[in-house]
Amino acid sequence: MKAMLNFANYSVYASITNDMEKKCYESALIQARATRDLQVRLLADNLRGAGKDPALLAYIKLRDPKLLNMVLSGQIPEEHSFTTTCLYDKLPDKVGEH
Questions:
Q1: Segments making up each domain of the chain, as ranges
Q2: Three-state DSSP class for 9?
């Protein structure tokens, strides 16, 4: 299971990196926000499943108390579908390249 999570994270970061390298900043930002929101939803689900384990709550509170308060108060981002388009590949050739 951890390997699947690692691969999923790698795939998202690779896509964001690719968009940033192509200067498709809006696309990268959309993907990053969607991924962040997904992680918050997964955290909320896992906290419920863990029965609000005190050690886990303390760990998160130490690192991001604002996030913990948001999740515990039920302020969970809704899931939204999205598409991104990067037009970099369709730009004219770079100066000096013909």
A1: 2-88
A2: helix
